Amino acid sequence: MAAGKELHVGLTDEYPPLSYVDANGQRRGFEFDLAADLCRRLGRTCVWTFGTQEKLLRGLRDGSLDLIFAQRLEPKQEGLLYSTPYYHSRAMCIGRPGGRGPDEAGARIGVYRGSVLVQRARGFWPEAIIVTGSVQELIERLKQGGIDVLFINDLAGYAFLLTDAGLEFDRLDIPFDAETRATGSCVAVRAGRHDLLAAVNRELKTLLYSGELHNRSRNYFQYIIY
């Protein structure tokens, strides 16, 4: 794989603390930092694309993107290549204590659009109303009473609960199957780029075993994510 060339990288623009714009208008996030570090290690210049999962997936399909840090495009898409996991997350439900739970008929459950959790929510709670949107949109709906429960991965969930707005909410004690409890998150690489996949896996392994990945994650998380 030639060094010194541009690497077209896609990230979600609406998923704090993984990728988001802070109050000062600066791009931040664990995945953003990791992607920038990966480009540097590969000797490539990052060319960024931020958008919805649907937009990023189209970019991989049409060749305008080389890879995306959007493992929430599950189930895994046929023809794309996937790295080894760079973190593990678990699903959780967030709601108001004493409020309507997800197993109650007519419960409104918010789920990040395009994620594997949409399918699982429909399977777990067939009588519920599933509402999809960005993380920011769903959090606003939860705060305003537009949804009863937020079904989300715990990285984004705990980040919200630690904010002032999250103080009136809590994690709901809901049992899940083993696959939902722990999910490995991967970089998706466009079809045919086995050389790029091998390089990504090599650098992710170095970051993991050297402790650099853990040190970087401490900027956003207070617990081990791998």
From TrEMBL:
Keyword Signal appears in the UniProt entry: yes
Keywords annotated in UniProt: Signal
InterPro entries in UniProt: Solute-binding_3/MltF_N
Residue ranges constituting the Solute-binding protein family 3/N-terminal domain according to the UniProt record: 6-224
Keyword Signal attributed: yes
Annotated Pfam families: SBP_bac_3
Protein name: ABC transporter, substrate-binding protein, family 3
Organism: Desulfovibrio piger ATCC 29098
